[in-house]
């Protein structure tokens, strides 16, 4: 989306500074993750949303598995990650169930902002569960983000329908589950396993979770168009199977503090692309909310760098 696949290393030791290649690739990744919300909205018009979750998770998981086999990445060693991996997969699976379901009611722009509140939920969780103290600067970032969320809920002009508030809440809860996944990874054996293995836990369990929910959302096929099909393929092949593998490469080569400085671009691209491609209303309050959330992210990441670590930019899921 709509940050970093869970399990990715976030230390800066021994890594080169950001260069032109890293900047270019991060712009590509954040643009792709911003476009992902638009793609989900479009694919929902053609396919049952839970079927979309299933196709995306199963198809992307198969491609990531083939990548691991080709690269010789160990996946089946007994390393104590089974139970936390299944738990992380459950959190991930329900996160995307909520996103796909939420986009049935709300706009892609509003969804992008709600889901990308994740870093702030993670700060709160880290403070209470991991003993990671919230500094004054981080607290200021949290306040700005909260103000941004209040603005979104109060913006009647950008609400696409009477049930939009439920879609907003579902996407906001998805951001909470995203943060919970990252916290689980940080506190468990998943933190020391390969990020590809963690991602495969997430994708596998997500596919299983979505399967029994499909009948609740009607027929598998709605108004199938070339665009809806292309949107689902884009999510499966490019977002899940390509951009996160590319992210793994970047995290291993460059400092997470540099990568995390691009965090605010994902919701920014999501909002702008929703307006340009879906003709969604982009009001002054939406842009003000985007500015507040982006400023909060900058404060949070700057505070992280001051402490020697950084919150990874994207994403714990796919």
Defining key terms:
mainly alpha
Helix-strand makeup class: mainly alpha
Number of domains: 1
Element-level helix/strand string: HHHHHHHHHHHH
**Low-confidence sequence ranges:** 7-14, 305-314
Query: What proportion of the residues is helical, as a percent range?
Result: 55-70%
User: Based on CA inertia axes, which overall geometry fits?
Assistant: globular
Rg over CA atoms, rounded to whole Å, is 18 Å
Number of helices: 12
Number of strands: 0
In what range is the share of β-strand residues?
Answer: under 5%
- Give the end-to-end Cα distance, rounded to a whole number of Å: 7 Å
Report the biggest beta sheet as strand number plus sense, adding barrel if it closes.
Answer: none
Mean pLDDT: 88
Question: What's a quick, concise take on this entry?
Answer:
The protein has helices at 20-46, 49-71, 82-102, 108-115, 118-129, 136-153, 164-187, 195-210, 226-253, 256-260, 265-278, 284-306. The protein is mostly helical.
Describe the structure.
With 318 residues, the protein is mainly alpha-helical. The protein has one domain (33-306). It is built from 12 helices and no strands. The protein has helices at residues 20-46, 49-71, 82-102, 108-115, 118-129, 136-153, 164-187, 195-210, 226-253, 256-260, 265-278, 284-306. The chain is globular.
